[in-house]
Amino acid sequence: MQVAHTAPMVEERGNSVPVNATTGAARIRLLLVEDHLVLREGLKALLEINPELEIVGEAGTVAEALTMAERLKPTIVLTDIALPDRSGVALINELRLRKLECHVVILTAYKTEEYIRTALDAGARGYILKDASSRELVQGLHAVVAGGKFLCQAISDMLVGRYMMPLEQRARAPLALLTDRESEVLSRVARGESNKCMARALLLSVKTVEKHRSNLMRKLMLHNTAEVTLFAIRQGIINQF
Fold first, then answer.
1. Which domain holds residue 229?
2. Domain annotation covers residue 130
3. Which stretches of the chain score pLDDT less than 70?
4. SS3 category, 124
5. CA–CA separation, 230 vs 22, rounded Å?
6. Average model confidence (pLDDT) across the chain
7. How far is residue 77's CA from residue 164's CA, in Å, rounded to a whole number?
8. Cβ 190 vs Cβ 228: under 8 Å
9. Rounded to whole angstroms, how far apart are CA atoms 130 and 204?
């Protein structure tokens, strides 16, 4: 369900440590970071029924999440990887730079290896898909708090299947994310062509070329032309000079 609504910072609670009245154990303090309001409200309702969890705050952007994390000191920041202002990976990096002692678990619909690898390399302690069961999500949160890392079953199965592919097929898998036009723009960007030159060659407007360029970089989680070029070399799209 797509919701074209970016919600503001909504709610925050005090930073005292709540205790489970039944077990006496400290509850897991969660900061939810999700820009789709309907999805965030549903997630909150789902998690709040668990007495071991405490939703201490909600945010819709990286900027909001950082402000709230500094103030509320959550145990776990549960965040999507795609946010309006920056990515969930950027959020992980900023939390580390600010020396905030909290774990980050990614909860997202993105299930390509590039996203998973980038998030885990940045320091995410868990990677869970939004279609995972509530039981698996809670299991993952507990695993992370206990000091482990957690991948939902669907991600684990996908990665195992991926590494059983022939090496050549495995190496080219990220390209399947791109449309034919995005692949063409990728190769031209890597060869150093300007947007204006690409527009002339492909009979497109400069604005359309810029859109394709932005889309392919977002899909592959590349941030600048140098990274695009390196990716193209590794994929065998262009030769290293």
1. 171-234
2. yes
3. 1-25, 161-174, 239-241
4. coil
5. 54
6. 83
7. 33
8. yes
9. 37
| Encoded amino acid at 214, one letter | S
Contact between residue 104 and residue 123 where contact means Cβ atoms under 8 Å apart:
yes
Number of structural domains found in the chain: 2
The pTM for the full model equals: 0.66
CATH code, domain carrying 97: 3.40.50.2300
Run of H or E including 32: strand 28-33
Tens digits of residue pLDDT in 137-161: 999 999 999 999 999 999 998 887 6
Last residue of a domain, one of 160, 189, 219: 160
Helices within 49-150 (DSSP H only): 62-72, 88-97, 113-122, 134-145
The number of residues making up the chain comes to 241
Task: Give the whole-angstrom CA distance, residue 158 versus residue 166.
Answer: 15
Buried b (16+ CB within 10 A) or exposed e, 84-105: eebbbbbbbebbeeeeeebbbb
Sheet of 28-33: strands edge to edge? Answer: 11-12, 53-59, 28-33, 76-79, 103-108, 126-129, 150-151
